[in-house]
Each structure stands twice: as structure tokens, then as C-alpha cells.
Amino acid sequence: MDATTTICHRYTPPDQLALFTKTADIIVSAAGVPNLIRADMVKPGAAIIDVGITRVEDPKTSKSYLVGDVDFEKVKEVAGYITPVPGGVGPMTVAMLMRNTIAAAKKTVIYNILDPGAVIYKKASQLKP
């Protein structure tokens, strides 16, 4: 399976950004800019993974809420798949962080059993000058 990866950022001019996104099968946005990706910028059927997260204030209620980089309500009408914010990639991020933390802890225990004198696993207070 061939793929071309294109990287843009929050300062990519909107017209250039749209040129790339309109042809993309998959868009991963993690810029932290609300409504960076609009419906007119998305290829029909594309998969949209919204990693961006920004707290914005509702001017009517003065309460804040979280939004992603994608104009979710409009883009969901064009995209084939889309992750919401909040509740999209956040829970998966937490799950993978916990998985990796447990894996690292297991490795630390194994390494300490195999080589109890390994400097890398000693606390700084246990090291001699």
C-alpha cells in the first residue's frame, strides 16, 4: 500500500492547506486551532482524526467547553469517518499511556531481578559520586 505523507501546520496558508486536505484520504489534525478544518476542505468519504483540543468560552453563558480542530457538525456530513472532541482520541491516548506505563514497570522489575546493580534503575539518592 503506497501513501504520501504531507505535513502542514497552523501557519500553512489556508488556500495551500485546502489543496492538500481536499485530496487526502486521511486527515490527522493536531494544531489546537478551532475550525481549522472545514467541510469545504475535506474530500468526500475521507477519514478525519481530530487530535486538536482547545477550550473556548460560550459568549452566551460564559462557560467554557472543548472543541477540536475540525468543524465537527459540518465536516461529519462530508467525511466517511470522524472522531469527536471530546471523547475521540483522548480515551485511547489515556489507555495507551496506561499500557505503556505498565509495560515499562514490568521491564524495570525484570531488569532489576536480572541485574540488581544496574545504575539506570537506581534512585539518584542511591548513587555514589
From TrEMBL:
Residues 2-108 form the Tetrahydrofolate dehydrogenase/cyclohydrolase NAD(P)-binding domain. It catalyses: (6R)-5,10-methenyltetrahydrofolate + H2O = (6R)-10-formyltetrahydrofolate + H(+). It holds the Pfam family THF_DHG_CYH_C. Keywords: Hydrolase, Oxidoreductase. InterPro entries: NAD(P)-bd_dom_sf, THF_DH/CycHdrlase, THF_DH/CycHdrlase_CS, THF_DH/CycHdrlase_NAD-bd_dom. GO terms for biological process: tetrahydrofolate interconversion. Transmembrane segments: none annotated. PANTHER family: BIFUNCTIONAL METHYLENETETRAHYDROFOLATE DEHYDROGENASE_CYCLOHYDROLASE, MITOCHONDRIAL, C-1-TETRAHYDROFOLATE SYNTHASE, CYTOPLASMIC-RELATED. This is Bifunctional methylenetetrahydrofolate dehydrogenase/cyclohydrolase, mitochondrial. The lineage of its organism: Eukaryota, Metazoa, Ecdysozoa, Arthropoda, Hexapoda. The gene is MTHFD2.
